[in-house]
Design goal:
Layout lengths: L2 H5 L12 H16 L1 H16 L1 E2 L9 H6 L11 E2 L2 E2 L5 H18 L3 E3 L5 H24 L10 H11 L3 E5 L15 H5 L1 E5 L10 H11 L3 E5 L9 H11 L2 E5 L4 H5 L9 H4 L2 E5 L10 E5 L2 H7 L2 H4 L6 H14 L2 H22 L4 E2 L8 E5 L7 H10 L2 E2 L1 E3 L7 H4 L2 E5 L1 H5 L4 H16 L1 E5 L5 E8 L1 H17 L10
Parallel strand pairs: 1-13, 5-6, 5-7, 7-8, 8-9
Antiparallel strand pairs: 2-3, 4-10, 9-10, 11-12, 12-15, 14-15, 16-17
Helix pairs in contact: 2-3, 5-15, 6-13, 9-10, 16-20, 20-21
């Protein structure tokens, strides 16, 4: 089911009358262009780019016109720190209404008892969850022990002791080159500066998550937080098993489902593979496979945690972006429709077809396949680094991102792999037969890409040559696929 089918009931009719979407966007661009023409031009340019490229960035999608329009309104002008009915600013009647609506939709969509829709991004959602866990597991017992109701009631000495305790907590999460994410406790990110972190990885042979290693690491390290979830792992995770490990060592299980939230919402991941009933707390972005606005969300079924999540503002967040919460409400409503289940299943079917198409043309698929929306391709058999593959594919109109693979020797900048995702192409209506064509385009480009020697005569990790004829042929094939599956056809040319 395409984004156009799920959100538009009227397109350009036989009389040539523009659709409501087209009229809205043309009017908006006229208003913007009257103030700063360059911004209007850049917006048109971005739409043109997205219409002329095969988008295979796994963390990107196409939001519906309704979701996009919900972000550009008067909610943007309102401060609303706090929670519905308990704000630090007056005049929040309609912010309360739209936030409650987004919460209700999110709870129903995911089957969660509690939803917090204020986080501005995935990292903000993770920070809210981390600090909620710290407040529940570290701060609250400390206050009880010191007969204090609030941190402001602590003496300077006691406060310093509590502050030190916050920084002495441990976390374990998936290694970066196994598919983990920087926000899961790695040093360049604030989470790594907050927690003492250790990583778990994948099996050297299967490249699959090694649950025995997770358990062994947890028993030895005894973390406060066990983080599950990924940004580049093409398989399901058994969250019931991860909960068993967390319970054994007394850890809080936090699942970051930013990448696969749409597959949870769409009923593709169920039972042991659904994080909602298995984790203590779940975080996510609201874009990616969920197809909403850029933002974050926190979910939980644990009553003793939610009071601390509700303190995300002022604990971590400032004023919520009320216009984005409005767009989240629209997106969650869309995802509750039966068509979204069809979409989510097609995403995974398309990923499987894409992986199979690349494998049969000589590409190596990490883990040998996929269970989700991700396909991780080792490009070393083509004699390339991930950076060269990413750049050569972009030249041919195919947008991917370079990505580390397990036990990567090329580092995080050049990498040995590329990460592909099917949510966006599924949104515009492509199916498994189209994915075989996409696989042929990708492999045709990669086979024709040659590293360029450095000045020292060694193979470059960045520069490459791609035959102009091959590039133009593959770009034309990509353009033909896009013409058959146009992006936002009801909007037309702006």
């Amino acid at each position: 089911m395409t984004v156009q089918e799920t959100t538009s009931t009227q397109s350009v009719n036989n009389a040539g009358v523009d659709s409501p979407e087209a009229l809205a966007y043309r009017a908006a661009l006229d208003v913007i262009g009257a103030v700063e023409p360059a911004v209007a031009d850049h917006i048109r340019g971005e739409l043109g780019n997205q219409r002329s490229q095969l988008k295979l960035i796994a963390s990107e999608n196409y939001a519906s016109p309704a979701v996009l329009l919900a972000m550009g309104n008067w909610f943007s002008d309102k401060y609303a720190e706090g929670t519905p009915g308990h704000r630090f600013y007056a005049g929040c009647e309609y912010v309360d209404k739209v936030e409650r609506l987004a919460v209700d939709h999110a709870k129903a969509l995911f089957g969660a008892d509690y939803a917090y829709v204020q986080p501005h991004s995935g990292i903000d959602a993770n920070l809210v969850a981390f600090w909620a866990i710290l407040a529940h597991r570290v701060e609250a017992p400390f206050l009880v022990d010191h007969e204090a109701k609030h941190v402001n009631d602590l003496s300077a000495t006691d406060w310093e002791e509590l502050r030190q305790s916050f920084g002495n907590q441990r976390m374990i999460g998936m290694a970066l080159n196994a598919g983990g994410h920087l926000t899961h406790g790695f040093r360049p990110n604030i989470s790594g500066k907050l927690f003492d972190q250790r990583s778990y990885g994948v099996d050297h042979t299967t490249e699959m998550l090694d649950y025995d290693q997770v358990a062994a690491t947890a028993r030895e390290f005894k973390p406060l937080v066990l983080v599950a979830g990924y940004s580049a792992y093409p398989r399901k995770v058994d969250f019931a098993k991860m909960r068993e490990i967390a319970d054994e060592v007394g850890a809080t299980l936090m699942v970051d489902m930013a990448h696969f939230a749409g597959l949870v919402a769409g009923g593709v991941f169920t039972g042991d593979f659904d994080p909602i009933p298995n984790a203590h707390i779940v975080t996510s972005t609201t874009h990616k496979s969920l197809r909403g606005p850029r933002g974050g969300i926190v979910l939980s079924n644990e009553a003793d945690l939610v009071e601390f999540v509700d303190k995300g503002c002022p604990m971590v967040l400032g004023g919520p972006l009320s216009n984005v919460m409005a767009a989240k409400a629209v997106a969650f409503s869309e995802a509750r429709q039966p068509e979204f289940k069809t979409y989510a299943q097609q995403v995974t079917d398309n990923a499987a077809a894409l992986a199979e198409g690349i494998a049969k043309r000589g590409g190596r698929i990490v883990t040998g396949g996929t269970d989700n929306h991700l396909v991780l391709v080792d490009v070393q058999p083509f004699g390339l680094t991930g950076r060269q593959a990413e750049s050569s594919l972009e030249a041919a109109g195919v947008i991917v991102n370079r990505n580390s693979i397990p036990f990567d020797t090329n580092g995080a900048w050049y990498t040995s792999g590329i990460r592909l995702g099917t949510p966006a192409l599924t949104t515009v209506g492509m199916d498994t037969s189209d994915m075989d064509e996409v696989a042929d385009i990708i492999c045709g480009v990669l086979r024709s890409t040659e590293p360029v020697p450095t000045k020292a005569g060694e193979p470059s990790k960045a520069h490459f040559d791609l035959d102009d004829g091959v590039r133009n042929d593959q770009r034309a094939r990509a353009a033909e696929l896009l013409a058959q599956n146009p992006l936002y056809p009801t909007i037309g040319q702006l």
